[in-house]
């Protein structure tokens, strides 16, 4: 039974700490291409393991606390991936360019007092 407790502890530590550790690793400066590659390899390995464990926790028939740990892990993995590989992607600006994100009209679209004739 002791070995089962150790395995469960390792699984939960991967799920809880995988995303935050990968997120902290994204702050290491990489000036050259070689430095970026050596920074991204551990980030990818950690995130891959964390995503596997977290999805297993979410979809397995366990109590709510285990599923919450899995969701926390996936969310932190998302932020680490986004910070490392897509630093210039802003969802709000992307949706606004597509006309989905809301915002104010220019007044010439026929809606509101300035657009009425």
Automatic annotation (TrEMBL):
Claim: Transmembrane is one of the keywords in the record: yes
Biased composition, class Gly residues, residue ranges: 98-117
Ranges for region Disordered: 97-117
Annotated keywords: Membrane, Transmembrane, Transmembrane helix
Segments crossing the lipid bilayer: 6-28, 40-58
Protein name: Unannotated protein
Lineage start: unclassified sequences, metagenomes, ecological metagenomes
């Amino acid at each position: 039974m002791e070995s089962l407790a150790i395995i469960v502890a390792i699984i939960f530590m991967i799920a809880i700490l995988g995303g935050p550790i990968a997120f902290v690793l994204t702050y290491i400066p990489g000036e050259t291409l070689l430095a970026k590659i050596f920074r991204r390899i551990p980030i990818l390995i950690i995130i891959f393991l964390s995503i596997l464990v977290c999805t297993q926790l979410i979809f397995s028939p366990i109590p709510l606390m285990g599923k919450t740990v899995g969701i926390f892990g996936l969310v932190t993995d998302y932020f680490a991936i986004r910070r490392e590989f897509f630093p210039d992607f802003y969802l709000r600006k992307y949706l606004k360019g597509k006309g989905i994100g809301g915002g104010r009209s220019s007044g010439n679209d026929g809606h509101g007092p300035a657009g009425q004739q």
